[in-house]
C-alpha cells in the first residue's frame, strides 16, 4: 500500500522561512551633488523621482537615509551598485 492510499499517513505541509531583512543605507557625503544622487537612486534602486529626492534630502539633513529594505543578497547588490557610482552606502540587518 502506498502513502497516498493509506488514510493514516499524513503529508506535512511545506515549511517556508522568510529571509532576514536588511536595510540599504545611503550616507551623506561632501562630494556628490544632490541631483546626481537623486538620478543614481532612480537608476539603481528603481524608485520614483520624488521618493529619490526625499531620500537624498533626508541623507543630506540627517546624515543617512534608508533607501530600501530587502533580503541580504539584493541589499548587497544595491549597496555595491551605489558604491560603484561613487555614493556612500552600507547595509544593516534589521
Percent range of helical residues: 40-55%
CATH architecture: 2-Layer Sandwich
Largest pleated sheet = 3 strands, antiparallel
Portion in beta strands:
15-25%
The average pLDDT value, as a whole number, equals 92
Fold and architecture overview:
With 94 residues, the protein is of the alpha+beta class. The chain has a single domain, classed as 2-Layer Sandwich (Ribosomal Protein L30, Chain: A). 41% of the residues lie in helices and 20% in strands. It has 3 helices and 3 strands, in the order E-H-H-E-H-E. A 3-stranded antiparallel β-sheet has the order 2-1-3. The protein is elongated. The mean pLDDT is 92.
Brief summary of the model shown:
41% of the residues lie in helices and 20% in strands. It is an alpha+beta fold. The protein has a single domain (22-93), classed as Ribosomal Protein L30, Chain: A (2-Layer Sandwich).
Search tags:
94 residues, three-stranded antiparallel sheet, alpha+beta, Ribosomal Protein L30, Chain: A, 3 helices
Write the layout of secondary structure elements.
Blueprint: E1 22-27, H1 34-45, H2 49-62, E2 64-70, H3 72-84, E3 88-93
Antiparallel strand pairs: 1-2, 1-3
Helix pairs in contact: 1-2
Amino acid at each position: 500500500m502506498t502513502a497516498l492510499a493509506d488514510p493514516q499517513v499524513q503529508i506535512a505541509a511545506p515549511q517556508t522561512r522568510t529571509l532576514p531583512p536588511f536595510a540599504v543605507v545611503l550616507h551623506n557625503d561632501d562630494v556628490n551633488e544632490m541631483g546626481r544622487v537623486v538620478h543614481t537612486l532612480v537608476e539603481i534602486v528603481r524608485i520614483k523621482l520624488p521618493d529619490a529626492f526625499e531620500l537624498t534630502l533626508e541623507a543630506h539633513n540627517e546624515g543617512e537615509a534608508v533607501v530600501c529594505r530587502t533580503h541580504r543578497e539584493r541589499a548587497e547588490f544595491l549597496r555595491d551598485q551605489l558604491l560603484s557610482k561613487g555614493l556612500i552606502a552600507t547595509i544593516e540587518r534589521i
